[in-house]
Design goal:
Blueprint lengths: L36 E2 L6 E4 L24 E3 L17 E10 L2 E9 L15 E2 L1 E3 L7 E2 L13 E3 L21 E3 L3 E3 L2 E9 L2 E8 L7 E10 L2 E5 L30 E5 L2 E5 L5 E3 L28 E8 L2 E14 L5 E4 L7 E13 L10 E4 L7 E3 L5 E5 L21 E7 L1 H4 L2 E3 L6 E4 L1
Antiparallel strand pairs: 1-2, 2-28, 3-26, 4-5, 5-7, 6-9, 7-8, 10-11, 12-13, 13-14, 14-15, 16-17, 17-18, 19-20, 20-21, 20-22, 22-23, 24-25, 25-26, 26-27
Length: about 450
């Protein structure tokens, strides 16, 4: 994670109706809050305060302060492809942004799950991984130039099952389990989900996942043999299968033995790098980065679970303020309490509940492996996100507004879902050690 220039970006959204509360009034705009920084005439620095933990453990925080709002978020104006022009914004899930230094200048990179022309969603097949780049968060956001590698292919596409013809005896670009295939139920099948981009050891890596309609469902990693635009090849450990073990899971149409751990993510520190997978799993990469050191029976993070523990996706670790933060995407479910009031919780499952928002919950630890603290709601509707810092050191999260279920699936709002959004975050300092969506009036505490 690296850095950004922040001047005036939170003043407005780039997409009309970005908050989209339907017939309800728009979310309140916050007054400019006191800037974090040294207090006048003192060496004490003022940080936002932690909110008290909601009780019981597992309750979901739905306060509007934790929503992406017009005053703290925006939709990135990614260059449109022909398929995007009618909509006017790129259709995006699992949105990912990061910032790197390249040749002494910042380069911002964006990617995510997109859909193929003619499809409403990114299944039962899509056409690969696209990258957008920009010199600042303000843009311009351009599709990365891949025309020198593939003059006849769509610009910006860095990997796809379509590239299977580039395989050679010594170089695998698309493994057999990643190729498109066909059946009577869905026709053409095979989609790639949730890509993310990393720079490690002087090389570019993309970690992604083959989705539910693929021959095998699970996470894999690509390494570039050139620059950020590629060409990319598959690492050796994924030629036969995704990372980790197979198990029974996913929709009923997935063949037994074809489901592996999804939503692969990447964390590095110094000379070491780790793979992070959904729910509790992680593994260290080998020094050559061609596989993980524990191909099966992966270790698990030590953390404070909910009871019962819900299914969690989009697991991501980032470091900020000297601490490790474990982010997980969890559905906030609404239900009626005994007194007739509507309640929200992450650990209320099954009958009598309905999905409301796909949230990012965080926990914090002193070590990568944990033990991690109790979880809290970092952002409403931020689920399957990533955190990054801009060139000024400001912390951001991505979001996309899940249109499949819940709040953003409502017919009055669904057109505002699946967008490439970012929202400013705030850190409560070395005493509080929490990260939240930038709140309107959080209050402040002082630390020496």
């Amino acid at each position: 994670m690296t850095g950004f220039e922040n001047d005036g970006m939170r003043r407005r959204s780039l997409l009309a109706g970005a908050v989209g509360l339907g017939a309800a009034a728009a979310l309140p705009m916050s007054a400019a809050r006191a800037a974090s920084g040294p207090a006048s005439g003192t060496s004490m620095r003022r940080y936002p305060t932690n909110w008290p933990d909601l009780q019981p453990y597992g309750a979901a925080d739905t306060r509007l302060d934790l929503w992406p709002r017009d005053d703290n978020s925006l939709i990135l104006p990614l260059e449109l492809r022909p398929r995007d022009k009618d909509r006017g914004v790129v259709w995006m899930r699992d949105f990912y942004v990061n910032c790197f230094q390249e040749h002494g200048a910042p380069v911002y990179v964006a990617t995510g799950t997109t859909r193929a022309p003619g499809l409403d969603i990114a299944a039962p097949w899509n056409d690969g991984i696209f990258l957008w780049v920009a010199p600042s968060l303000k843009g311009p956001w351009r599709l990365i130039d891949t025309t020198g590698l593939r003059p006849d292919a769509e610009k910006g596409k860095v990997w796809s099952p379509e590239f299977v013809g580039e395989n050679t005896a010594t170089r695998t670009v698309v493994a057999p389990w990643q190729e498109y295939w066909y059946d009577d139920m869905f026709g053409k099948r095979g989609e790639v989900w949730a890509p993310e981009v990393h720079r490690f050891g002087g090389k570019w890596y993309i970690v992604a996942c083959m989705g539910d309609h693929s021959q095998k469902v699970g996470s894999f990693m690509l390494v570039s043999e050139g620059g950020l635009e590629g060409p990319y090849r598959l690492v050796e450990g994924n030629v036969e299968k995704p990372f980790g073990d197979s198990f029974i899971g996913g929709p009923s149409f997935i063949k037994p033995g074809a489901y592996f751990h999804i939503d692969g993510s990447f964390f590095s520190e110094g000379d070491d790098a780790w793979l992070v997978l959904h729910n509790d799993l992680y593994a260290k990469f080998r020094p050559d980065m061609e596989d993980i050191t524990t191909p099966t029976n992966l270790p698990v993070f030590a953390q404070a679970p909910y009871s019962p523990e819900p299914y969690r996706e989009g697991v991501y670790v980032f470091k900020h303020g000297g601490k490790y933060y474990l982010s997980q995407a969890v559905w906030d479910r609404q239900y009626s309490a005994a007194d007739g009031s509507t309640q929200n919780a992450y650990n209320r499952l099954g009958a009598g509940t309905q999905q409301y928002q796909y949230d990012s919950v965080l926990a914090v630890a002193d070590r990568f492996e944990g033990p991690y603290s109790v979880r809290w709601t970092a952002g409403v509707g931020l689920g399957h996100n990533n955190f990054f810092t801009d060139t000024s050191g400001k912390l951001w999260s991505t979001f996309f507004r899940n249109p499949n279920f819940g709040y953003w699936a409502d017919p009055s709002r669904v057109a505002q879902g699946a967008v490439p959004g970012i929202v400013q975050m705030e850190w409560t300092g070395p005493a509080g050690n929490r990260v939240y969506v930038e709140r309107r009036n959080p209050g402040h505490a002082s630390d020496g």
